[in-house]
């Protein structure tokens, strides 16, 4: 999707090579974008549609892993199967 390519470019520009959109620490924009990851993962599991992958969006693919591993995210994001 074109919008994911634009998001990849925005991440590259604004993260300055850091882990999250605003830099070294998770911030508001990470949560705003990250809230959609659960649904993208559910679509992948249900229909086999892969939206974020290392081939097309390598920075976002790596960011999704870092985002999911944060304590703040682990506390509030349910397992993908809960929304399926």
From TrEMBL:
Pfam family, one: GST_C
Molecular function (Gene Ontology), one example: glutathione transferase activity
GST C-terminal domain span: 1-84
Protein name: GST C-terminal domain-containing protein
Gene Ontology process terms (BP): glutathione metabolic process
